[in-house]
Amino acid sequence: MMLHDSYARFTPYELAFPNLDRLEELILGVEEEAKNQGVDLSDLNTFFAMGHVDAFVREIQGPDALPETIYQYVTLVFHAVHFNQAGCPIYLLSENVARDLLENHRGGQPTPLECSGYIQLPQHLLWMSGADPGPPESIDGIFWVLSNRGTLHSLLIAGLRPDRPGFVIVPVPEAPISEASDWVKAAVRDGIDDFSSQLPGGELDQLHALETSGEVLKLLARFFAYVSSVPGTVEMVSPNTSDQADPVPCALPFFRVTQNA
User: Fold this and answer.
1) Phi (first) and psi of residue 217, to 5 degrees
2) What sign results for the dihedral spanned by CA atoms 80, 86, 88, 91?
């Protein structure tokens, strides 16, 4: 299976919010609403209750949307708003770095680099179980938001495929960032190695999987610790502008995370 890590791919942020003017209008609205009400926008429950958010989501999802769909989409909007406010920081992990994070922990303090960001993983390296009886889904990356109260919100994104619209959204339960040092070495799965994949033939390409919320937090913590402890691994890169590139490239600048030679 061909893995891809040479440039940042078209992101779920770009796919879900092609009309940035509409998203920025929402951001201005929720900022004003939060200021008038004296509430914290970085709190997910508060964000859910905001009138501008409700109107935005119902306009897009329609009046007949299922509660689960509404919940997933509001969570995506929450991450998109904070991702936008942070300047859209995208961190593309090279295959070597991603494999290192899955297999090792180098130490360092697992403190988020930004209050919000997106880690894009090498294409097709990590997988998750699909909805029964659907096929497994390839994981694209993970959004995170660090709240003002020190709570880490994260959102797993999978299933970006050119043969279908949309993608898979998997909200991860919030967790206190103060416990991140424990996540890096935690044994999450019962009786099986963390990040191991049961994908048929996956051992040939040394593929991995994220099947639990704990594994998502463990990977995030290891990423935070890695970039804080290994200097010279993060490099700002201009987007790939080729019309012929496959997969479709991200139109935003991104950070490439590599191993320091």
Assistant:
1) -65, -40
2) negative
In our burial notation (b when 16+ CB lie closer than 10 A, e otherwise), range 151-177 reads bbbbbbbbbbeeeeeebbbbbbebbeb
Token pair of 122, please?
């090498």
What Cα–Cα distance (Å) separates residue 214 from each residue in 20, 106, 152, 155, 186? 33, 19, 13, 12, 8
Rounded to 5 degrees, φ, ψ at 232 are 80, 15
Model pTM score: 0.95
pLDDT tens figures, 213-243: 999 999 999 999 999 888 889 999 999 888 8
Distance between CA atoms of 17 and 153, rounded to whole angstroms?
Answer: 20
Residue 73: CB atoms within 10 Å? 18
Tokens of 215: 């594994």
